[in-house]
Amino acid sequence: MLSEEDDVDIHALKRQGMTISEIARRTDHDRKTIRAYLARQAAPGQRKRATSDLFDKFIAYVTARLTEDPHLWAVTLLDELRPLGFTGSYPTLTRQVRDRGLRPTCTACAHVTKRPNAIIEHPPGEETQFDWVELPDAPIGWVFPTKRAYVLVGSLAHSGVWRAVISPSMDQPHLLAAMTVLLGLLGGVTKTWRFDRMSTVLKAGTSDLTPMFAAFSKHHAVSVVACRPRSGNRKGVVEKNNHTA
């Protein structure tokens, strides 16, 4: 790559009657480079990316996938492109998607972000948020009864610190067992636990705790809060950590 100053120099030398070989020797650059800049096939200060042309054959697939799901994670897209022959790195993929404008704007999200939002304060020791993440195709070595595994994620709302426990089921006994482990990993209990409207936490169609979970929360001397329907963003701390998990 030649700088603006180098480009000016080689054009001046060319006007003085020097050959490309003479200019190359004088400026200590390759003859092909000199010829490309004199022919305006290369722009000063801009390095041509060797990976750009290699990415062309993947544009149609990437465009189709991102049109189908504008929120598709780049790491998932990278995993899908590997069998198709893509050998670039994760930063290369994200740069290509960004520079080429391949990810469309999500109209649903654009509408949501225009709504007024309130900042929710989370004092230290106030709230722990819990949520399940489903993992398909559990390794055979785990000896789980089904091909699925479940991860209970617990996040401290104030700091965002989180821990997770893998479980073969989301039923109530496994929920309580996973929570017991999580409380130890998180260093204790907060004043409040926040959940989705899980049937293992609330009686179906009501806001009342199930008897077993009521006894469990009473034992730990905590209050239990369930998010209102369609208000899952109220536990955004654990939702964010679910993605990481």
TrEMBL record:
InterPro entries, alphabetically?
Homeodomain-like_sf, Integrase_cat-core
Reading the lineage from the top rank, the first entry is Bacteria
**SUPFAM superfamilies registered for this protein in UniProt:** Homeodomain-like
The cross-references to Gene3D superfamilies, in alphabetical order and at most eight, read: Homeodomain-like (1.10.10.60)
Instruction: Identify the residues that the record assigns to the Integrase catalytic domain, covering every copy.
Output: 120-245
**What PROSITE patterns is this protein classified in?**
INTEGRASE
Spell out where the chain crosses the membrane. none
Question: Which processes are annotated in GO (biological process)?
Answer: DNA integration
- PANTHER family, per this entry? TRANSPOSASE, TRANSPOSASE RV3428C-RELATED
Name used for this protein in its record: Transcriptional regulator
